[in-house]
Design a protein that fits this description.
- There is one protein chain.
- The protein is α/β, with parallel strands linked by helices and 383 residues long.
- Helix content is 37%, strand content 18%.
- The protein contains 13 helices and 10 strands.
- Strands 1, 2, 3, 4, 5, 6, 7, 8, 9 and 10 form a 10-stranded mixed β-sheet that branches.
- It is globular and about 60 Å long.
- Belongs to the thiolase-like superfamily. Thiolase family.
- Keywords: Acyltransferase, Transferase.
- GO terms for molecular function: acetyl-CoA C-acetyltransferase activity.
Length: 383
C-alpha cells in the first residue's frame, strides 16, 4: 500500500455571518482555494485525478455538486471530475480520508480534498427546512423505524451539548473560561502572523473575522442560556461562518514525477460512531480507537485540533482522553474562528499542519463531532 502525502494546504479567511464573504457565491468561494492551491504547488490542474469537497445544506448556490462547479469556476480542465460529500461537520475531513484512500489504494495519484460553506447565504439546516414543503420536518424523527429504535426524543446538537455538560459536570464558568481562551489564542496567533502562510486573502479580507478582542467573562455571564435552566450560551458555541479550504494529497509516484515537496504524510484515518441522541460524544471513543489502531498514546501526539462545536464537547473530550489543554487548539478554535461546516475539516488540517511545522512537532491528531453521532480522526506526521 502506497503512502498518502500532504503536499500543501490553504484556506480562505473565515468570514463571520453577514460579513465580508457573505455575498460570495459558493462556487466562487470554493474556486478561490483551488486556484490558490494550484498556484502554491505548481501542479498542472490537468493532472488532478479528482476534487472531493465537503458541503452540507447543498441547496441554492451549494446545489448541483458544488465540487464540480467550483473546479470549473477555478478554470480546471473539463475532464477533471469532482464530487461533493456530506458527513455533516466532518465533511471535508472525510474528503481527506477519501482522497488518502484513493491514493493509498493506487487508484489515484493527485487528489484535492476540501470544502466550502456559505452559512450566511444558506443558513444551517436549510435542507431540513426545504423538506417541510414535502411533509417531513426532520430526516429521522418521523420515521417509525427510527422511533422504534431510539424513541420519540429530541435529536438536537443543543440538547446534546447540554447533556454532555451535565454528564461530565462541566460548569458554565468552565465553558466560558475555555471560550475566552479560544478568542485570546486566535487573536494572539493572528497578531503573531501564524495564520499568514495558510490564508489566501479573498474579497478584501485577509484575516479571520470571528475572534472578538472585546469579549470578556463579564459579558459572557450576562448572556441567556439557550435552554431555560441550562448551561450553554451562544458564547460557548461555534460561530456561524463562511469559508473554504483545501489540501493536496499525492502518492509517492506523483511526488517523484512532478518534483513535489511533501510537508506531511497521512499516518492514520478512521471514523467511529456513537449514540446519535448524544450526537457530540463520538470524538471520545473515536480518538481512543485511532490511537490504539495507530499504536500511539495520547502523549505521543504533539498537537490536537478538536473542533469547538461547543465548549462542553472539547472539555469532556479532554477529561476522557487526558489530553493537555496546552496542546489542544493552540491557535483557537471554532468558538473564536468560526465553524463553516463543510470547510471546517480541512481548515483544521491546514492550521494543524502549519503549527506542527512552526513548533517542530511530529504527530498531529484532528477530530470533530458530527451530526448523527459520528467522529473522524486523522493523524498526520510532519516530514
Amino acid at each position: 500500500m502506497t503512502t498518502a502525502y500532504l503536499i500543501d494546504a490553504v484556506r480562505s479567511p473565515v468570514g463571520k455571518r453577514g460579513g465580508s464573504l457573505s455575498g460570495v457565491h459558493s462556487a466562487d468561494l470554493g474556486a478561490h482555494v483551488l486556484r490558490a492551491l494550484i498556484e502554491r504547488t505548481g501542479v498542472d490542474p490537468a493532472n488532478i485525478d479528482d476534487v472531493i469537497f465537503g458541503c452540507t445544506d447543498t441547496i441554492g448556490s451549494q446545489a448541483g455538486n458544488i465540487a464540480r462547479s467550483a473546479l470549473l469556476v477555478a478554470g480546471f480542465p473539463e475532464h477533471v471530475p469532482g464530487v461533493t460529500i456530506d458527513r455533516q461537520c466532518g465533511s471535508s475531513q472525510q474528503a481527506v480520508h477519501f482522497a488518502a484512500q484513493a491514493v493509498m489504494s493506487g487508484t489515484n495519484d493527485l487528489v484535492i480534498a476540501g470544502g466550502v460553506q456559505n452559512m450566511s447565504a444558506i443558513p444551517i439546516s436549510s435542507a431540513m427546512a426545504v423538506g417541510e414543503q414535502f411533509g417531513f420536518t426532520t430526516p429521522f424523527a418521523e420515521s417509525p423505524g427510527w422511533n422504534e429504535r431510539f424513541g420519540d426524543q429530541e435529536i438536537s446538537q443543543f440538547r446534546a451539548s447540554e447533556m454532555i455538560a451535565e454528564h461530565w459536570d462541566v460548569t458554565r464558568e468552565e465553558m466560558e473560561a475555555f471560550a475566552l481562551e479560544s478568542h485570546h489564542r486566535a487573536i494572539a496567533a493572528a497578531d503573531a502572523g501564524y495564520f499568514d502562510n495558510e490564508i489566501a486573502p479573498f474579497n478584501g479580507l485577509a484575516r479571520d473575522e470571528g475572534p472578538r478582542p472585546d469579549t470578556s467573562l463579564e459579558r459572557m455571564a450576562n448572556l441567556q442560556t439557550l435552554n431555560p435552566g441550562g448551561r450553554i450560551t451562544a458564547a460557548v458555541a461555534s460561530q456561524i461562518s463562511d469559508a473554504s479550504s483545501a489540501v493536496l494529497v499525492a502518492s509517492e509516484a506523483a511526488v517523484q514525477k512532478y518534483g513535489l515537496k511533501s510537508r506531511a504524510r497521512i499516518h492514520h484515518i478512521s471514523v467511529r460512531g456513537a449514540d446519535p441522541a448524544w450526537m457530540l460524544t463520538a470524538p471520545i471513543p473515536a480518538t481512543k480507537y485511532a490511537l490504539e489502531k495507530a499504536g500511539l498514546t495520547i502523549d505521543d501526539i504533539d498537537l490536537f485540533e478538536v473542533n469547538e462545536a461547543f465548549a462542553s464537547v472539547v472539555l469532556a473530550w479532554m477529561k476522557e482522553t487526558g489530553a493537555d489543554h496546552s496542546k489542544v487548539n493552540v491557535n483557537g478554535g471554532g468558538i473564536a474562528l468560526g465553524h463553516p461546516i463543510g470547510a471546517t475539516g480541512t481548515r483544521l488540517m491546514t492550521t494543524l499542519l502549519n503549527e506542527l511545522e512552526r513548533r517542530g512537532g511530529r504527530y498531529g491528531l484532528q477530530t470533530m463531532c458530527e451530526g448523527g453521532g459520528l467522529a473522524n480522526v486523522t493523524i498526520i506526521e510532519r516530514l
